[in-house]
Fold this sequence. Notes:
The protein has helices at 2-27, 43-65, 71-97, 106-138. By secondary structure, the chain is an all-alpha fold. The chain has one domain (2-28, 41-138). Helix 1 (2-27) crosses helix 2 (43-65). The longest helix is centred in the C-terminal third of the chain and has 33 residues, at 106-138. It is elongated, with a radius of gyration of 16 Å. The two termini are 18 Å apart.
Amino acid sequence: MLKNLKKPLSIGLLFFISTFLEIYWAVGELSDRMSSGNPDASFFDDAYLISLFTTIFLTIVFLFLSLIKNKYLKVTIQFMFLISVWFFWNYTIFVDRESSWSTYTFNEELYYTLSVSILPVLILSIPTIFGLNYILKSHEPK
C-alpha cells in the first residue's frame, strides 16, 4: 500500500517545495502588501495554499502525462505546463496584491509578471522537471 503512494507523494513534495520557492522568489517583494481579496491573509498563507493546490493539480496531471512514451514530447509538455501554471499564479498574486490597488492595464500586468517571473521560473523549472522524470523513472516497474 505504502509502496503505491511513494511515487505520488515524492512528486507532490517536489512540486510543493519548488512552487513555494518559485512564488517567494518571483513575487516575494509583494509580501508586505495587503491582499485585495482577503485583507487578513498573509503572503505566506497565499503561497502555502497556492503551493498546495498546485501540488495536487500538477501531480495528477503529470502522472497522466507520464503515460506518454515519446520522451522529448513528454518533457516539452511538462515544461510548458509547469511554466504556464507558475506564470498564472504569479500573475494572480500580482493582481491581488499590487495591480488591484492601482491603475495597471492588462498589458502592463503581463509585462510586470513576465519580467519578475522569467528568471525564477526558468531556473526552478529545469531541476523540477529533471527531478520529476527521475522520480517517474526510478519508480517504473522493471
